[in-house]
Amino acid sequence: MFRTLRNLGRVTGIVRTIAKHDALFPLTESNAPFFLKFGIALITIGARLAPDHARLRKGEKLALALQKLGPGFIKLGQALSVRSDLVGEEIADDLASLQDSLPPFGTDEARRSIEEEFGKPLDELFASFDDKAVAAASIAQVHFAITTEDLPVAVKILRPGIEAAFARELDLLHWMAEIVERHIPQARRLRPIEVIDTLSETVAMEMDLRLEAAAGDELRANFYGDEHFKVPAMDWTRTGKRVLTSERVSGVPVDEVSTLEKAGQDIETLVANMARAFFLQVFRDGFFHADLHPGNLLVDEDGAIQAVDFGIMGRLDKQTRYYLAEMMIGFLTADYAKVAAIHFQAGYVPATQSEEAFAQAARAIAEPILGLPLKDISLARLLAQLFTITERFEMQTQPQLLLLQKTMLVAEGVGRRLHPETNMWELARPLIEDWMEVALSPEAKAAEVMAEAGKLIERLPTLITDMNDSVSSMARDGLKLHPDTINAMTRGGGKSVRWPLWAGGAIVVGLIIAAS
Q1: Residue 281 and residue 292: Cα distance in Å, rounded?
Q2: What's the rounded Cα separation, in Å, for the pair 16 and 39?
Q3: Is 217 a catalytic residue?
């Protein structure tokens, strides 16, 4: 009851803020219950529309409202920006423009946070520490410093009290999602509770800077020695849960084309290097930087792309990479039967659906996009269109692909700003085809089978021990079944079924073999 009363007061202010930005359309245009719409009407009496909002798109209005509401709602908008299957492509694109920036907190608080994290005075860690923050977002801000070993570094520090602040906002969002899911049946398809749960997990990871440092370290190891794509080294001795210290890198933001040209950089080569780096992350490593806005990609004087900020990363298992590569090639070669077959083989579309109908739908969304001039073809937009047909074909949502699609969209935007005449995916296509040829070769498949067999052999002693323990337990105590199972097997006579020991042993052995 106390939670409900507390949240009702906060919701009143939230609804009025959203109303002022004319962004209540998710509720006012839905079949929400009358009492909910009536309550919203009462709350918004006298709320004046912000100036110049009439000319904005719905998604732009919603983005401005969420930005006004604060960090938790900014993160919600960013989470929804990768869910075009839920909110639609146009709104998702508008939400992607949400800027996660806030005024910096005080230098004294930053210094105190560092000293509390490591239990020692600041001057024992850094020879100098810049008071002015170079970047400030909802969760953390960054200061430049020089270590006692005379190395220039960037120090990322969590905002004081941010964990408690986000806990309050996420609790409120979860409560609101419960209300929406309970009282607006048509909104259940959007799975609001699941969206907030995913957001909570993401925020929890972002608030442990050791995890971000580990992500950066892994990406750096994957590109160790690469001349075209570089990742700063992590300073683990000055990194903890609330503080991350890394090598300081410098360069020109990748979208400042005129500055890059004046510095003598070959812009077309930069786009090719971006495409190559993205391909290697996604297909070779299955681990990619998922926040590729221009502020996180700097070009150094040698033309190498320097990546920073590893709070949002994506991961793809090998089977998903195979699926993605074959699907992309299928679309680029207009082989829609292949596109459909891949979806069914991967289990993304239930076998009860029509493979031919899915191929027809794939053709319908791809032809308008693939028929454009090469420079205008957007694989990210094609994937977004593909995800819009998920409900019709009962296709399971694949969160890792949604994140990849949004990352591809951002990368495409950067590539077009750099060199509008170049399509970065066409540059990456030969790399993808070569990777597939090697990855799907008989030799590679045989190596995978041998690797899996090796893992099974390693587990065999444990499996045998478990099987022996299970059989011994049944010999001592008999086979125990769940009451529901017993009821199902009694066939209405109310008599228990007594199985011989050998039958129970056979079942257990069969289950163990099947599991292995």
Answers
A1: 12
A2: 12
A3: no
CA distance 476 to 470: 10
Count Cβ atoms within 10 A of the Cβ of residue 314 and give its class: 0-12 exposed, 13-18 middle, 19 or more buried: buried
pLDDT digits (tens, 9 = 90+) for 460-482: 677 677 666 666 666 666 656 55
Choose, from 291, 335, 434, 484, the residue flagged as catalytic: 291
pLDDT at position 458: 72
The vertex-156 CA angle with 154 and 159, nearest 5°, equals 155
Whole-angstrom Cα distance, residue 162 to residue 160? 6
Cα 275 to the center of its chain, rounded Å: 20
- Helix then strand count (H, E) for the chain reads 22, 11
Could you tell me the pTM of the whole model? 0.76
CA neighbor of 10 nearest in space, from 171, 193, 202: 171
DSSP strand pairing (135-136 vs 140-147): antiparallel
241: left (phi over 0), alpha (psi -120 to 50) or beta: alpha
| Residue-wise DSSP of 44-93 | TTTPPPPTT-TTS-HHHHHHHHHHHH-HHHHHHHHHHTT-HHHH-HHHHH
- In the numeric block, the tokens 């079949």 are attached to 31
